[in-house]
Specification:
Length: 561
């Protein structure tokens, strides 16, 4: 497997092709979802050249935040960077706040735009206000500036700017009922020309209360042929639909129509996304489908404007398979990276931490491994829900297997490390030091978010594979191969036929030689996290604050069928 290293923007010869999900059929067509991973609330813009497309998505409390994905054809996507290193580095108080795990808070529903030579991303943090970040040198895969708080306050979500032809700037946003105690309305206000502060008062331009358009949110703001357009979902996440609304004024009034809904398809939602008009005259809409435990995966639908309205998909229903967008060249199949050989001195772009990064969480080594240090469990915690140093990635397909080779070093009793499938419920397979031996344990916790205690199932007792003899604080070591497999019961496969997919199951296995694997315990039903899909990766913790840290050296992870 190739290492998860940064790919130069045009280095398509090094493109990563997934073994478990690739939407490009190789015959000029694609199959949805174009990204079968949790990129919730996706938004897209056409790059400066007209030949590149950039996407971002909600990242909530995870860091690095605001993922940047790049494509040449809207079907084949790669992760090229992140706009945020931590939340929020320019504000000491908030930086510290997000150093503890804040499930479901942080970066909600961003929008990405190209304007005046720079790329901009706006998002609403429902607790702190509207934020904006822009590129330093016009390269979305490069460095981004520190975020700016554009509007302080609670309840602001789902923000999108629109720079008009006369240079004026407007901002549309939705409202989080959990903070503002009202929702299902969209407001528009004028901003300064540079988009950094409001200069006008908000105006309610759409009200979905008491109608089928309840829970209208996620608005995206556009202008086309003299019309101001707002595209937004309504009707709720799992069973809602897409609205398009238009007006001759940014402040309305807006007339509206449903332009995309599930209909007779298996694609529920369809929910929030972004519109792209290509240099070849085509129009496309990227949006998400809520697949519960897997999170919110990304679909691509054609858009037809022949009626004067953006009719999406096939006669207003999402497509399962369709012809690819027109491009000026044939590009290699490219997918977001999943496997990692950990041979780079920078962390792979698929990985995120559960909170603001601290170097004591873990660092790459010069030895072809990623070292993750044990982290003291939060006080009064009886499960792993609030552990910030979990190194996790999104699930990449409905069914897959992840196998990893690790070396665990323990300096004290109770230290443990291994692999985990993390959500509101979680399960993990870890080695834990007990005296001079290791216990191989399967951890299970249901309703972790409610503070329920985790259970431990003893799988095996293992002798250390090595012991320190001359270290002044000697450790003991364990080399082991760990594996998790995600699968669907046959009844779900037959019932759903590629659409919404039921209840995925996780099984763990282990091996001492990398050849013969033994199943570790029974199955675990995967469950989503707070506003995100379940994520898998590494956990490394301890319960003794006075002990020297142990660590997990990860040699590689390989994601296969």
């Amino acid at each position: 497997m190739m290492a998860a290293v940064a790919l130069p923007m045009m280095a398509y010869a090094q493109a990563y092709k997934s073994e478990v999900w690739s939407p490009d059929n190789g015959d000029g067509t694609y199959t949805n979802p174009v990204i079968n991973a949790d990129y919730s609330d996706p938004d897209v813009c056409v790059g400066a050249s007209g030949e590149d497309y950039y996407m971002t998505a909600s990242s909530f409390q995870c860091t690095p935040g605001l993922p940047i994905l790049h494509s040449k054809d809207l079907v084949n996507w790669e992760i090229v960077g992140y706009a945020l290193k931590n939340l929020y580095e320019g504000d000491c108080k908030l930086l510290e706040h997000f150093s503890t795990v804040q499930h479901g808070n942080g970066v909600w529903a961003p929008s990405i735009r190209y304007h005046a030579g720079q790329y901009y991303i706006y998002w609403g943090d429902p607790d702190y206000g509207v934020y904006m970040v822009k590129t330093k040198n016009g390269d979305p895969a490069g460095e981004w500036e520190q975020p700016v708080c554009v509007i302080k306050g609670q309840g602001y979500i789902d923000t999108t700017p629109l720079w008009d032809e006369d240079g004026r700037c407007y901002l549309v946003n939705g409202w989080a009922n959990s903070r503002s105690k009202y929702a299902s309305v969209l407001t528009v206000r004028e901003m300064s020309a540079d988009g950094t502060k409001p200069i006008g008062q908000p105006v309610i331009v759409f009200d979905g209360n008491g109608t089928e358009n309840r829970t209208c949110e996620g608005p995206k703001f556009y202008k086309r042929d003299g019309w101001y357009w707002i595209m937004c979902p309504a009707g709720g996440v799992p069973g809602g639909f897409q609205l398009a609304m238009r007006s001759r004024s940014p402040y309305g009034p807006y007339e509206h129509k449903i332009v995309l809904q599930q209909g007779k398809t298996n694609i529920n939602g369809p929910h929030q996304g972004g519109w792209a008009h290509t240099k070849y005259g085509e129009d496309w809409f990227l949006h998400f489908q809520d697949k519960e435990a897997y999170g919110r995966v990304v679909h691509l639908n054609p858009v037809n404007w022949s009626t004067g309205w953006p009719v999406m998909g096939k006669k207003g229903e999402p497509v399962a398979t369709y012809k690819k967008p027109i491009t000026n060249n044939q590009y290699p199949i490219t997918n977001p990276v999943e496997s990692d050989e950990f041979n780079s001195t920078t962390i792979g772009k698929q990985w995120q931490w559960q909170a603001n990064y601290d170097e004591k969480f873990g660092v790459p080594t010069a030895f072809g491994t990623m070292r993750i240090f044990t982290y003291k469990l939060p006080e009064h915690s009886n499960n792993l829900f609030l552990v910030p140093n979990m190194l996790l990635q999104k699930t990449p397909a409905d069914e897959f297997m992840a196998t990893t080779k690790v070396h665990f070093t323990s300096k004290a009793d109770g230290q443990m490390g291994g692999i985990i499938m993390m959500g509101l419920d979680y399960s993990a397979l870890v080695v834990k030091r007990v005296g001079k031996e290791f216990q191989l344990l399967r951890l299970i916790c249901k309703q972790a978010d409610k503070g329920k205690a985790q259970e431990e199932e003893l799988i095996a007792t293992l002798k250390p594979t090595a012991e320190d003899k001359i270290d002044y604080k000697p450790g003991i070591h364990e080399d082991i191969y760990l594996q998790l497999k995600v699968s669907l019961p046959d009844k779900d496969k037959l019932k759903n036929k590629g659409g919404y997919v039921g209840k995925p199951q996780v099984t763990f296995s282990y091996s001492l030689d990398g050849k013969k694997f033994q199943q570790a315990g029974g199955t675990f039903q995967m469950r989503q996290g707070k506003w995100i899909g379940a994520k898998f990766g590494y956990v490394c913790v301890e319960d003794n604050a006075k002990a020297d840290r142990g660590w997990l050296d990860v040699d590689w992870m390989r994601v296969t069928k």
